[in-house]
Design brief:
Layout (H helix, E strand, L loop, with lengths): L3 E4 L3 H8 L2 E2 L8 E5 L5 E6 L5 E7 L17 E3 L7 H4 L5 E6 L1 E7 L7 E7 L6 E11 L6 E11 L2 H4 L7 E3 L1 E2 L1 H8 L16 E4 L1
Parallel strand pairs: 2-5, 5-11, 6-11
Antiparallel strand pairs: 1-3, 1-8, 4-5, 4-7, 7-10, 8-9, 9-14, 10-11, 10-13, 11-12
Length: 205
């Protein structure tokens, strides 16, 4: 799974890398550790506005939700069951790129996970990349405000990631640059349901 990530690139670096303009510069805040359970607002690019980098909160809230409580369970979405889950069905056409330059995972050092080793994982030179995601807009009945939220899609772990995430053996779907536009342009989801051979690096922390 993926509940902790990192985005320390500058606005200019992200705009140059993804050929998109930052929509709300005042919201932009690079962070070395993003905890999904705190539902931070992070940079994404959506199918609807691929020319913009905007911000959305981690933890998808479907339009039909009565309150925000569901988002603690929607930080991730398994690519194998997206079509089956009510939380994600309506968001299948609403794809996004979640911009990052790292994520964190914990390797179990014993059978029950009482002892763990933390790793920071990313591309060489901490290059920016995109997780595959889905997003939704939710109208808060109390405030009348619309929130944009997202989930990170996960798949089976690559051989490299299996050695690190050795309990669940899952990993986020990391898109190769040439596949980012395919994801946004609604290429069949099944085409992304396998770990890409991305040259990931891991550093113990």
């Amino acid at each position: 799974m993926c509940f902790h990530s990192k985005q320390t690139k500058s606005a200019v670096e992200l705009q140059n890398r993804f050929k998109a303009t930052l929509k709300d510069p005042q919201l932009f805040s690079p962070q070395a550790h993003l905890n999904g359970f705190e539902h931070p607002a992070t940079p994404i690019i959506t199918t609807q506005e691929p020319e913009l980098i905007q911000h959305a909160q981690w933890g998808l809230i479907p339009a039909w939700a009565k309150d925000e409580s569901i988002r603690r369970y929607t930080l991730n979405a398994k690519i194998e069951t997206l079509h089956e889950k009510p939380s994600f069905k309506d968001s299948l056409p609403k794809r996004c790129l979640i911009l990052a330059n790292g994520f964190y995972e914990w390797q179990w050092l014993d059978a029950k996970g009482k002892h763990k080793q933390a790793y920071e994982i990313g591309l060489p030179q901490e290059a920016a990349f995109a997780f595959a995601g889905l997003y939704a807009q939710w109208l808060c009945p109390q405030t009348g405000n619309t929130q944009t939220t997202y989930t990170i899609i996960t798949t089976q772990a690559s051989p490299f990631m299996e050695t690190i995430h050795n309990s669940k053996k899952r990993m986020p779907v990391i898109l190769a640059p040439k596949h980012e536009s395919l994801w946004l342009n609604q290429a069949p989801i099944a085409e992304f349901a396998f770990p890409y051979a991305v040259a990931l690096e891991a550093r113990s922390i």
